[in-house]
């Protein structure tokens, strides 16, 4: 008879008593590891490091913009700051932290021992890590050994011909392009690994229709990586040919086209947003049901909507280019395609609403962040519809409204779900709970800071403030908004410090978690916390989407309803 | 009875559980990503067709490489036979087919080298000359790089086969390699049509 | 959340300013404004409905209301009817917003050009604007003069946009949406300010170090003012014996390799045309008011005002500085 006690003992295995090791041994173990859990943690750790760097850059920019005609930083330094902030946050925080969670969770959730290609997995991580290091080396060595260092200052989308040798002398742009190229190679490797793992490593009974939604969404995201990151990689190769070999892909003086770079960049750049947001949806799909105590509503619709978003997102890139002078017909097409993304996205929000409906909502910190995500993602989606309307975009494009909109997505949706994921899976990763008390402080401070910053940031955009300016005129009426926006950034900083403190404090002092602290339903909670290197003592066999629910509720098992 | 049956601990899978080979899945993913990279280079080639500010033009300098194309495409067939032979543990046949594949691939790459030599030293076309040079060398060069990588792997497989280190249990690996080689050939079909047939 | 509330409730009070997109002047900005009101209203309704449902669900189904019940809530796995209904409604909204947007796209982008329209060629340079009036043979910089366009007898100005170096974007929010200036490419847009006055804007595409101080000033002149302005600009530079020394300094320094002054040996095109510099209100692409003191300081070291500006410090002696400033200030 399967009971609660037996799955805990049999699958979780005995707690290991490890002999104490020297620091060098531990370092060696982490550097040479091919274990998906350790690599996942390496990804997450390195992303947190870069998150702090990117955050500091954002903070300096907000200080500079708090008042008009400020001289806290020079224009050159400011341009480097926003370039580094964007590049860091997208390529060395967003992608790796999401791949980190995926690496850690996917094999556990499908009952596998490891990823399909463990060594490729390690290679991908180190590629990303050294890519990030390379990017920051530019601060020391950017313009070559002869000159002082300069970080790249071409913006994270690096429009041609600003990246061409005459406008970007020295090597700072080379650092940028190489770092992004490395990150791209790493992403493609990771995505390949995830797809191969999901297709070939599932435990018996784990049919595609029984996979946790998190695994589904990571699969869709990985498939998108092949088709979106590759064009960026190709464009980086072309840019390097231009800079090193003197070719003319984006050389406007030899007939090259600046617009072609825009197309290539945004064929990557827009689906990239969905690549980043799908894992956030994935976390929500796991966390919201557990803390509503209900199965996810409309599993097939959720899968279909994710696949739908994946496909539609390939036909929307030029909504970043409504102002480059495309024909009215082309503009209209991209309006329609972009707005169409709203449909599957709406389905997702409604399904989460229906999941909560009739549940018993437990307000853990993870759930609070998820609920914040729901509201903020709703707003981000709606401001997205505004920007999708091309004429409205002729006004709002490249203004602070856009900055507010996409930070609503990246911070309000994705970062909030990353925080939720930390609170939810930290016990699995470390064996200890994070402090809920600190967590709630962090949540409420972050919510206040977030809304102060990013709600009000829409307004200077409406008042005509373009992005990427290091200072502004005093007579435009932008000052009060910028001041409030900057003060919100300070509050978010405090909340983030609480979070980091909580991570460290809980590791040593947190309550011992046990294998299944949330009374959850997916396979990772059947392994010990933290799981042993082999994950499961015996390969599990599943017969429904929520194997642990079935054990806990044999009288009302999901498997009956399949 | 039902309560035990619907548990995570069920020992016996209820149905046979066979999943695709991870090597094949991984290679298919890589091919998808590579196809996207090539697509961007092809798009750039087509986009810049006829936009060069100065000569030479493709029509002036390019010749249709029929012989080398036949060589490369037939190497797809030989590598298929090599994988097939290995599956049935016919090691000598495997070696023979692999040798044929490597030879055909080498003919192709040597021809490309000769073509480039002529273009650079006789026609004066380099990657810096104009947009045609830029896109032509990048696209054909990217493909040639893939051919070289494939040839290195195939030669390695050939050496292992000759030394008797490669047996039927490595059948899956050669299968994965042959998938890659088929892809490289398929890309050439596109490059051939875009650059040499329609682009001239 | 907050932004939507402020947007629609307090719109008239909060959202005004010299560069606000919600203070439209002219047809393109007006039609965008009307469209944006529609989009805002629809999205605000959607927000209100979904956010209220979410809030209700969170309060109604909180665990605290079920204290003492150990049971899990009933498990519901989905419903196809419900899924279809919340797929169809968003589709209808999307189609509606798409049609409204497409109408504005076509009426704005494909508007026919009347025969009496004024043509101006706008060339973006790293951190300043060049304006050419081909019909009148005028080349000027940074301050664009256009005639007022009376709605009963419209005289729109059609701008032809291109760039000499990197990407730029021409954005005067009260007149129209932005359009990019891209090297090797020609774009166009049109404006028709209905009232005389000054309309402000600035470059909206990151173009290099001094992107922030690449400001735009559009002067909408009454027909008579505009005719007068054209007449003044068509003249060659004034020559006055009192500033001959300054002119000498100008012509014997590197100034002439970048700047043009009609009627002199200065024919450079890398920097702004200075033929009628003193007729302008500002220097440094609209970021510094023009007066003798500012101009002198600018010539001495332009980077004081605009770090990263491409004009180098000329290292003139104080005497020469005064002379050349006096000369340039005479170029009415």
Ordered list of secondary-structure elements with their pairings:
The complex is a heterotrimer of chains A (about 550), B (about 200) and C (about 325).
Chain A: H1 4-12, H2 23-31, H3 36-65, H4 75-109, H5 118-141, H6 172-200, H7 213-245, H8 258-292, H9 299-312, H10 328-340, H11 342-356, H12 365-388, H13 390-396, H14 400-430, H15 436-456, H16 458-462, H17 479-509, H18 547-552
Helix pairs in contact in A: 3-4, 3-5, 3-17, 4-5, 4-6, 4-8, 5-6, 6-7, 7-8, 7-9, 8-12, 8-14, 9-11, 11-12, 12-14, 12-15, 14-15, 15-17
Chain B: H1 2-5, H2 22-47, H3 58-61, H4 66-87, H5 91-121, H6 131-162, H7 171-198
Chain C: H1 2-9, H2 11-14, H3 27-60, H4 80-109, E1 118-125, E2 128-133, E3 138-141, E4 143-147, E5 157-163, E6 168-170, E7 179-181, E8 187-191, E9 197-202, E10 215-221, H5 223-234, H6 244-251, H7 255-258, E11 282-283, E12 288-289, H8 292-300, H9 318-329
Parallel strand pairs in C: 1-5, 4-10
Antiparallel strand pairs in C: 1-2, 2-3, 5-8, 6-7, 9-10, 11-12
Helix pairs in contact in C: 3-4, 6-9, 8-9
Offer a few descriptive terms:
heterotrimer, B: 200 residues, mainly alpha, 7 helices, 74% helix, elongated, C: 332 residues, alpha+beta, five-stranded mixed beta sheet
Structural notes for this entry:
The complex is a heterotrimer of chains A (562), B (200) and C (332). Chain A is mainly α and 562 residues long. Chain A contains 18 helices and no strands. Chain A has helices at residues 4-12, 23-31, 36-65, 75-109, 118-141, 172-200, 213-245, 258-292, 299-312, 328-340, 342-356, 365-388, 390-396, 400-430, 436-456, 458-462, 479-509, 547-552. The longest helix of chain A has 35 residues, at 75-109. The radius of gyration of chain A is 24 Å and the shape is globular. Chain B is mainly alpha-helical. Chain B contains seven helices and no strands. Mean pLDDT of chain B is 91; it is low at 1-8. Chain C has nine helices and twelve strands. Chain C has helices at 2-9, 11-14, 27-60, 80-109, 223-234, 244-251, 255-258, 292-300, 318-329; strands at 118-125, 128-133, 138-141, 143-147, 157-163, 168-170, 179-181, 187-191, 197-202, 215-221, 282-283, 288-289. In chain C, a hairpin with a 4-residue loop joins strand 2 and strand 3. The radius of gyration of chain C is 27 Å and the shape is elongated. At the A-C interface, helix 4, helix 8, helix 9, helix 10 and helix 11 of A face helix 1, helix 3, helix 4 and strand 9 of C.
